[in-house]
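Quick review question:
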């Protein structure tokens, strides 16, 4: 997974972001102001930077100019949600611009998209004895390929990208089937049962009572 530098001066927000990223396997660095962030960026060589705009001293719009000189992918994560601010951030070289408040699942999806686009993503993921290659849509267990239907793999991908996070049935429908899907949440339960059987994930793919499911990775 990736090494991500979080540049955020509000400690509670930075800790929440770090928690969500750590749960899905990313390693995190944190900085609360520009000079500390630059020092970490130069010494630790992160794969991606999450950058707040409103920082003490130099703001994120100023800081990104230096970060981009070192070819670091940057996602702005800020409460400044005007079109003018978004356009400015993207024109300065940001790879994405996310406004607060945000859903953890959306943040993780945006991070994964930027990592893939910039070539910083490690495609092989190992969970509960199963090797998963998202881009190749390939799954192997004990040296043998496991065949999934297209929809089963779509659901698996959503669970993998949000591992250790409880996902509601409605959210799984929205992300794995698409916004225009018309159907009942029962179809999620059926596909979960198939994944458990094919992958041997009875102990990893947990039911969250009256809510949905959570894919738990091994410690």
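Suggested answer, residue by residue:
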């Amino acid at each position: 997974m990736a090494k991500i530098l979080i540049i955020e001066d509000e400690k509670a927000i930075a800790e929440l972001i770090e928690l969500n990223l750590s749960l899905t396997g990313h390693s995190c660095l944190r900085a609360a102001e520009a000079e500390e962030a630059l020092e970490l960026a130069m010494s630790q060589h992160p794969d991606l930077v999450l950058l707040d705009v409103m920082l003490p001293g130099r703001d994120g719009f100023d800081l990104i100019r230096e970060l981009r000189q070192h070819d670091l992918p940057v996602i702005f994560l800020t409460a400044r949600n005007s079109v003018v601010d978004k356009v400015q951030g993207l024109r300065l070289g940001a790879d994405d611009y996310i406004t607060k408040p945000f859903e953890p699942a959306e943040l993780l999806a945006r991070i994964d998209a930027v990592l893939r686009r910039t070539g910083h993503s490690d495609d092989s993921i190992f969970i509960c004895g199963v090797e998963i290659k998202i881009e190749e849509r390939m799954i192997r267990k004990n040296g043998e390929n496991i065949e999934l239907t297209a929809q089963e793999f779509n659901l698996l991908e959503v669970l993998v990208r949000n591992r250790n996070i409880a996902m509601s049935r409605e959210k799984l429908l929205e992300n794995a089937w698409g916004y225009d899907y018309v159907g009942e949440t029962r179809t999620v339960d059926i596909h979960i049962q198939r994944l458990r059987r094919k992958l041997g994930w009875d102990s990893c793919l947990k039911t969250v009572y009256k809510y949905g499911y959570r894919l738990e990775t091994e410690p």
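Why it works: The helical segments are 11-23, 34-44, 60-69, 83-91, 104-117, 150-161, 169-177, 186-199. The first strand starts at residue 3 and ends at 7.
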